[in-house]
Amino acid sequence: xxxxxxxxxxxxxxxxREVLERSESVPVVVDFWAPWCGPCRTLGPLLERLVHExxxxxxxxxxxxxxxxxxAAQFGARSIPMVLGIxxxxxxxxxxxxxxxxxxxxxxxxxxxxxxxxxxxxxxxLREAGNAADAEAxxxxxxxxxARHGRALYGLAGLLADRGETAEALDLLDHVLPHEIVAExxxxxxTRLRLEGEGGGDPDDLRARVEADPDDLATRIELGRAxxxxxxxxxxxxxxxxxxxRDAEFDEGAARLAMLDLFELLGSxxxxxxxxxxxxxxxxxx
Length: 286
Fold this sequence. Notes:
Elements: E1 7-9, H1 15-21, E2 28-33, H2 38-53, E3 59-64, H3 69-74, E4 82-87, E5 90-96, H4 101-111, H5 115-128, H6 132-145, H7 150-162, H8 166-173, H9 183-198, H10 203-212, H11 217-229, H12 233-246, H13 254-266, H14 271-284
Parallel strand pairs: 1-3, 2-3
Antiparallel strand pairs: 2-4, 4-5
């Protein structure tokens, strides 16, 4: 990143790319300002100088609130100057009004990557390169420093899942906070692991048992889980749905919960999710 890239002017057309997407790799300081604002003209050059001291470890994005009113409204910039520190798409710090240099230095220190961030980033790189052992060591070191570090929890859970250590992986995923950038991916992984863990039976054997006794709902649900674990998602959803049609409350609604887990795994936009959501609603509210 060149010196010219350390301070950028951002508007509504490129805020997503230049601020939110960029914050996944480097912290971004967002300065909401306006040309008529006296304190803004005092704060701006100071922010720029202090950001440039970090030589690309942080970026300053300037947003003219008059030119970008929707972005200003979205982030509640009612009084300016207002400054946000964004890392991994989440607001990590903020202040309003001109501040002394010492306060801004403290603010910048608070949004820069922590030691745990650095360790987790190194671990991600090692894992992608196939070095699972060193990646695991760095993930665990990151969690020693920050027990709820999202990327480290998710990364380590993925390694453990690959080794079949499902229980510990699920425990780690359960500690990922909802605001973390990896929260959605962590939930999908947890859903997959739960489905795989519950679907250890042989689908052909389970189907034969269901055909012999169509009212054996426990086996019908077990069949759905086995099919889901095998990646046969449409068949799994059909099996769960038939169980619901026969008795929606069986085993405390286990078939409905299994369908919801599978919807989560597939994603809300998936064709199967959209089709079977309608079927589920009709089965429940007929």
